[in-house]
Design brief:
79 residues; alpha+beta; 3-stranded mixed β-sheet; 3 helices; 44% helix
Length: 79
């Protein structure tokens, strides 16, 4: 679970203008993991990307990681 949070933080810090404000937490719900990504409100648009392409790519990466650990992973951006 910590690896999923570290991967999410690493990607988000590379995209954000305020990388020190980025943090990720993981909650386990049965066979699923819910990743909550907290970013500076000014960076939310950069994390989501044009037409949601960046957040979709992050979710795809996390789904691939989840498949290796036999868990479903969801990602939510929180301001």
């Amino acid at each position: 679970m910590a690896d999923v949070a570290r991967l999410t933080e690493h990607i988000a810090r590379a995209l954000a203008d305020a990388p020190e404000a980025v943090s990720a937490s993981v909650e386990a719900h049965g066979n699923a993991l819910a990743v909550k990504l907290k970013v500076d409100p000014a960076d939310v648009g950069k994390i989501i990307g044009r037409h949601g392409r960046t957040i979709t790519a992050m979710r795809s990466l996390l789904s691939a990681v989840g498949a290796t650990i036999s868990r479903r992973v969801s990602l939510e951006v929180v301001e």
